[in-house]
Amino acid sequence: MGGCKFLSDMAESARDETQGGHCFKKEKIKYTPEEEAKLERQHFWRIIDAFKYYRVHVQEQVKRAERQFRSLSQSHQNLLPGVLYNLARITQCADHNQEILHAIVHNSLHMFENVEYGEWEKDPRKVRPSTTFDMDKLKSTIKQFVRDWSEAGQAERDTCYKPIIQEIKRLFPSDKYDVSKVSVLVPGAGLGRLAWEIAQQGYTCQGNEWSFFMLFSSNFVLNRCEQVNALTLYPWIHQFSNNKKSSDQTRPIRFPDINPQSLPYDADFSMVAGDFVEVYTEPESWNCVATCFFIDTAHNVLEYMDTIWQILKPGGVWINLGPLLYHFENMANELSVELSYEDIRTAMVKLGFIIEVENESMQTTYTENDRSMLRYVYDCIFFVARKPAELHFNGQDDSQHHIAPPAAKSPRREGTDRLT
Ligand SMILES: C[S@@+](CC[C@H](N)C(=O)[O-])C[C@H]1O[C@@H](n2cnc3c(N)ncnc32)[C@H](O)[C@@H]1O
Q1: Cα–ligand 1 centroid distance for 276 (angstroms)
Q2: Strand boundaries in 110-226, DSSP class E
Q3: Mutate to test the pocket of ligand 1, among 7, 158, 159, 210 (most ligand atoms within 8 A of CB)
């Protein structure tokens, strides 16, 4: 039975998780260690506050809906006998979600082995208002439980995580490798399921995540939940549009669909908090970097690419699946370099990566509400790119590339897609 060790390496990390927060990545403001620790502490407690404010926030939405309903003429109200009942049900579901969120907070206060965030200077019992931005993040985090830790998320995991895991197993098969010595890094690990699944296969796996919303929640599920499907969340109550039935809005999911504590006793599985490019500076230290719905979170995706190149061991592989929905697009005062996949691919090859597997059309969803009248499908790119075992060039001049033979037996063709 193995839990998951959480370490924090948040110093110097971006703190633009909350609007109006302290983004000291972009401007590279230099703080003293004391200032940094203080900002970090404030940030930590602000996210805790957001978890506590959830019920009030949903109640406000419900009250608004109730006011709208009561503003209707009596004859119109009479046509809608179920509306107030549904709103009352939403309130009950929000109360229940709040209990789970309280449990998450309760287990977060001392979650890092190497950092303590002290006490909140203000009255800990007081519920302080949070921004809409933070509430949206919290609601997305609740939906992330569906994707990562519920039976309802199985189909989505099969399209997003399975191809990555299959490639890891193909590239580092257990009959040829001592897989416990194969190290896999999962940056932007979310609620940790992909990283957990990789560790479950016996690989040494570390998830890296920067959002406290995600970190608090993954710590809870990975270290505090044992009984399968023992807990309930109502992830869809915040969706007031595109419901076919009112009861769709209040339907529950159960989690975790599997006991997260069921890793082999000797599994090497950990999570590190912090900004991927700040935390991972040790060159040539990973056999595999697996990114899922991650690379478009970058201000500059080439910075992520550089980091991955640096930290991969010679012969190591980068496996990626996801769209290019640039997170900082249209955000005022934020650096955001929005490259096409074509441009990213060119840059990868120039840097020296050898693209061994490539599929430019993998259809996936992300925290999908399968009963909603509005559903998004991402037509994702998927690739496996290798850092050659022997580096013969400096990445500056294409004509000087001498491509080392990939360690994989043969490049694979996926569907009808382009292959290098
Ligand atoms: C779209 S989510 C994908 C989560 C997970 N990989 C999945 O497929 O469900 C992107 C994740 O990357 C995290 N993230 C964004 N920028 C990051 C950074 N610089 N370092 C580490 N994590 C980051 C976000 O907090 C978020 O949890």
Answers
A1: 9
A2: 183-187, 204-209
A3: 210
Using CA atoms, how far apart are residues 311 and 403, in angstroms rounded to an integer? Answer: 19
Q: Tokens 């491509």 sit at which residue?
A: 403
Write the CB contacts of 24 (distance below 8 Å, at least 6 apart in sequence). Answer: 12, 14, 15, 31, 39
Task: Spell out the long-range contacts of 21-25 with Cβ–Cβ below 8 A and sequence spacing 24 or more.
Answer: 21/46, 23/334, 25/275, 25/278, 25/299
Tokens of 239: 């969706």
Q: 3-state SS of 211-266?
A: CHHHHHHHHHHHHHCCCCCCEEECCCCCCCCCECCHHHHCCCEEECCCCCCECCCC
List, in sequence order, every beta strand (DSSP E) within 117-192. 183-187
378-386: strand order across its sheet: 5-8, 269-273, 204-209, 183-187, 286-292, 312-322, 378-386, 354-364
β-strand partners of 291: 320
Q: How much distance in Å is there from the Cα of 188 to the middle of ligand 1?
A: 3
pLDDT by 10s per residue, the chain, length 420: 568 899 988 754 434 453 333 222 334 567 888 888 888 889 999 999 999 999 999 999 999 999 999 999 999 999 999 999 999 999 999 999 999 999 999 999 889 878 888 776 666 667 889 999 999 999 999 999 999 999 999 999 999 999 999 999 999 999 999 999 999 999 999 999 999 999 999 999 999 999 999 999 999 999 999 999 999 999 999 999 999 999 999 999 999 999 999 999 999 999 999 999 999 999 999 999 999 999 999 999 999 999 999 999 999 999 999 999 999 999 999 999 999 999 999 999 999 999 999 999 999 999 999 999 999 999 999 999 999 998 765 444 444 343 333 333 233 222 322 222
Ligand 1 contacts CB of residue 146 (under 6 A)? no
CA torsion sign, 349 to 210 to 93 to 64?
Answer: negative
CA atoms within 13 A on the CB side of 20: 7
pTM of the model: 0.90
